[in-house]
Amino acid sequence: MTSPALTVPGRRALADPARWPDVAVLPPASRARTAVARTLVRHALAELPLYVRLPGGGRLGRGGPVLDLLDPGAFFRRIGAGGLIGFGESYMAGEWEAPDPVAVLTVLARRAADLVPRPLQRLRGLWALRQPDVRRNTPAGSRDNIRHHYDLSNDLFRLFLDETMTYSAGVFRGFPAEWDLLAAAQHRKIDRLLDLAEVGGGTRVLEIGTGWGELAIRAAARGARVTSITLSAEQRDLARERVRAAGFADRVSVELCDYREVTGTYDAVLSVEMIEAVGAEYWPVYFATLDRRLAPGGRAALQAITMPHDRMLASRSTFTWIQKYIFPGGLLPSTEAVEEAVRTHTSLRTVRRDGFGAHYAETLRLWRERFTARADEVEALGFDATFRRMWTLYLAYSEAGFRSGYLDVQQYLFAKEPVGGPGEEPAGELAAGLAGEFPAEFAAAAAEKKENEAR
């Protein structure tokens, strides 16, 4: 027997069943699972600094950002059936709203480790959904996973990214960030990575994860010769177009290629927020590839989003809403996991690590505000209301992760052989210790991170 199509009381059903079957139709869930979910979630919400408004005038929480629970029955049923996947699908279905979703999600992110009682966390394997094998990041699987997100539409990404078409954290000179300064912040981030890797005239550069070509263009402008690889045909085509327009077609090659298939030797390897798509199973292969492709004395500069090690260990086999709808096969590493993979599977030395999560929160805010303001243009591209709610939640969810301190973003420098010259700093130093390189910007990130951890 199939479940009835979802209709939220007083609201029309948002989701097209053909495109969004798990949103348009309530999932099967036993009364027992739904009852347990209702009890646990209500108890958790009652203890949080939130103001949860219920139909009929009821409320939960100790006061704070507002969450309107429009259809509690559907909300608890979805969570009972799918946990956090159900929480996300409930938003996509219009069963809960928040005037400021980032504020609500930031509260939840700060309590992520203890929202579920610890005795029940030990039973995670019994109730948490597992990642499907089809999403493993084999060479074929990686192509499908990358295409799911990055081949949506170049025009879609144009609507909310700045003119550099850079889809990663920028580095700002001050907060709050402003849209007109985002392109400069992206260039500042890219230039710092190029400086770390000592990219200049004649440098042979390998870029793993092209994006839309801005890093390759700036490396070529320094006189480098760049081989850039991606698994997204949409990204490759636009990156090649942008490289040609910049006048660097003779210095930059952009190819559809898996990182495991790259050949050749390079003076510098750069990879910006690509490791998140690799998967824990292949982290050793990824870092071994960096090692093999670097010439003796070479440097690798990596930018990576990270999460706490204990949370990564607890959730690395769990199937999440982000993996189901946004980044199939994705998994954020911890700093411990990165450094262990480098130490165990490569001859590289970790020279330095600098965190600047507060800058990502601001980057995401600017993207989210731009995406929301241009909703009509998103719709004109063929993306329906459920997609727009999904992406609004994705951007807000990500921003909240950085604002809460649950997520961070790091720039790493790895060396093929010890460099140890004057001015080098040990691995693990936060960016507040940078010697003359954007000290105010990175110090602000470190200060905000400490403040979040103290809460």
SSE layout:
Layout lengths: L20 H4 L6 H16 L4 E3 L5 E2 L5 E4 L2 H11 L1 H9 L3 E2 L3 H10 L7 H4 L2 H4 L11 H12 L3 H7 L21 H15 L7 E5 L5 H8 L3 E6 L2 H14 L5 E5 L9 E7 L10 H11 E13 L2 H7 L5 H5 L9 H11 L3 E7 L1 H17 L1 H6 L4 H20 L3 E8 L23 H16 L1
Parallel strand pairs: 1-3, 5-6, 5-8, 6-7, 8-9
Antiparallel strand pairs: 1-2, 3-4, 9-11, 10-11
What does this structure look like?
- This protein has 455 residues and is an alpha/beta fold.
- The protein contains 20 helices and 11 strands.
- The chain has a 7-stranded mixed beta sheet with strand order 7-6-5-8-9-11-10, sandwiched between helices. Strands 2-1-3-4 form a 4-stranded mixed beta sheet.
- 46% of the residues are buried.
- Residues 1-12 and 421-437 have low confidence and may be disordered.
Give the strand content.
Answer: 5-15%
Relative helix content: 40-55%
Q: Report the biggest beta sheet as strand number plus sense, adding barrel if it closes.
A: 7 strands, mixed
Query: On the 0-100 scale, what is the average pLDDT?
Result: 89
Number of E strands: 11
Distance between the termini: 48 Å
Low-confidence residue ranges: 1-12, 421-437
Tally of helical runs: 20
Kindly report the spatial arrangement of strands forming the biggest sheet.
Answer: 7-6-5-8-9-11-10
Q: Structural class from helices and strands?
A: alpha/beta
Backbone CA Rg: 22 Å
Shape: globular
